[in-house]
Each structure stands twice: as structure tokens, then as C-alpha cells.
Amino acid sequence: MLLKVGDIAPEITLADQDGTTRSLSQYKGQWVLVYFYPKDNTPGCTTEACSLRDSFPTFDKHTCVVLGVSTDSVASHKKFARKFNLPFILLADTEKKTVADYGVWGEKKFMGRTYIGTARTSFLINPQGIIYKVYEKVNPVTHAKEVLADITQGKQ
Where are the domains of the chain? Predict the structure, then answer.
């Protein structure tokens, strides 16, 4: 079941693109964008990652940590991050525990085909560890700007 606004964000403990274990709890006291995406190096995921990259200085200014999560491997994330100069953390959920905990793993349809995968969904988590906003069916092009507007609103 997809988490909702007001829920406590479940802990995340996964390896990043460099093999370093990262936990959501280490960012308590900061805004955190946890964005789930289907697959490294695919058109929509690349567009979304590059849009977040291009807006990263503004995320940094707002002290908002960006955590990308997919079921790809650490090695795949490393190649993806290097290829597109991604300045944020990519987490490898190869066991699919985190995608299940956040309710983003399930049936999808694409070009008439039904399969199981990760829904392009993001969660903006406030400094207290509470889900402030849920973004379903994310538009990869406009997502970064939408999130930054919500952080600005949330800080007021």
C-alpha cells in the first residue's frame, strides 16, 4: 500500500553507487526527497535524473538531500551517476524491500504489456521524518521544480 502524507517515513538502509551504506535516519533534521524510478539509463529515468541534477544547487541551498532509489545494482548506479554527472545519492534496492515498504512495487502497464516493476513515485520527507508530500505518476521534466516549490512552501 502506497504511503500517504502524514505517515512516518520508513527507514531506508541501502548501499549507494559507491557501495557505502546509507540510511534515511542519518538525514533527520533535513528535508529529503526520496525518488523511486524504474531503471538506470532509460529515457524517462535519465530525463528525471538530469532534471534533478540541473536543479541540485537549489536543493542543496534548501538543505534538501536527494536520494534516488531503484532495484538496479550498485555497479549499474555507479555507471549511471558517472555517465550523467549526478551529484546526488543513488541507492540500490536489489532485494526490493524498500520499494515494497513505500508501496511503489507492483503491477505496471507499458505499451500494452503488463509486468511487475517500480512506479515512478517520489516522497518529500520533512526534517521530522514525516512524509510531507507524495508525488505519483511523476513528470520527469517538471518534477524538480515542483518539489522545490513544495519545499519553499513547507518552510514557511
Answer: 13-154
Which CA distances in Å does 12 have to 16, 67, 93, 108, 124? 11, 10, 9, 23, 14
The answer to whether residue 50 is catalytic is no
CATH domain 13-154 topology:
Glutaredoxin (3.40.30)
In the numeric block, which cell numbers belong to residue 77? Answer: 548506479
pLDDT digits (tens, 9 = 90+) for 112-129: 888 788 989 999 999 999
Q: How many residues does the chain have?
A: 156
Please compute the mean of the pLDDT values over residues 145-155 and round it to a whole number: 86
Burial class (CB in 10 A: 0-12, 13-18, 19+), 82: exposed
Counts of helices then strands in the chain (DSSP H, E): 4, 9
Q: What per-residue confidence (pLDDT) applies to 156?
A: 65
The active-site residue, picked from 24, 45, 81, 124, is 45
